[in-house]
Amino acid sequence: MSMPARIIAKIAKSDLQVLLADAESKKMNPSGNYPMLVTPQGNLFESLAIAKFLAADVAGMLGASAEDKARIDQWIFWSFTGHLNDQRKALQAIFGKAEVTQAEFTESMNKAKGNAKTLNVALKGKDWLVGSAMTLADIVLACHFMNAQQVLIDGGFRKAMPDFSNWFERVVKVDAFVAVAGNVRACAKSVKPTVKAEEKKAAAPKQQAAKKEAGDDQDGTPKKPKSALELLPETKFDLFNFKTFFVNEADKSGSAVDEFLKMYDAEGWSCWHMHYEMYKGEGEKLFMTENMLDGYLQRWEDFRKWSFGKMCILGTETKQEIKGVFMWRGQVIPQECIDHPSFEYYKTTKMDILNKPEDLAELRRYWGAVPDQVIDDMPVIVARWQK
User: Measuring CA to CA, how many Å separate 313 from each of 88, 250, 301, 309, 322?
Assistant: First the structure.
């Protein structure tokens, strides 16, 4: 019996017995499709039909009006005909159920996340998908998103989708849902998939040599830069050597910054103050705030070659803020920041460290920050480098 049907049966307090199909039951089902529900009124097959039949005994579960009923069907059919297939390849790669290429996995994952975004928009300012109470649509879609939430959709992405995330947590904590599915926990990090290695055709030796000299890809097309930052004018600032020097200098807020100012290329690089805007309930438990900051920086691993900075957790054990100062390539916010799932929740302010003494003083405070130091009238609890 499908999970939505069993959850509905719990809510309706139906006396539902789940049995394995045998020779006798097969005679009762002309379609040969299972699950099948045997009732005094007749037999039903197809999981959605069974769920709707059981939901009819629960007030409001199928909607309070014709419009509500249509909207419930709308979301259920959207999930059955779209989302389930969209996420299939990604889940197959994670669970090892089929050979999936990296490209297929990525496409499937992006579609699943796109569907989560769709729900996030639909749930804006609402607790439930249809009306003011939980309906069959909420139960079916939460079941359909359950595997993706547990292994595919990571915490950073969910943070950027608060309405979707809160809705999912609300549904899976319903007593009947827990009784059937157990305690469902969304993953902090997505599980690494097993993908099929794609075969590449080897080019002829002379072609390979010519392409290598021309700096082309193996198909003869010019190499595309991995980042728009690679297209910026050359800079005299050597980030690698600077990092090596800075992390080994004892007086980071003093002599290290003084030396940095001699190296700094203000035309090729820019400095930014960053302040995370806490949501209600955030910043109240230190271990959660620390996990949030660590997760944020870990998802910026590929940005290390273009950036340097320090982020700090300030405050007390029960009330924290996340602030810091970053330097990165270019004069505007790069695509690498925009693509980060949590970057939009940071308030960023461009600094002018060469012409504004207050900005330079701020950079010195954060880059030299150590625990128990006071910044912005708050003690530093945790300091993390991005280097």
Answer: 39, 22, 20, 14, 5
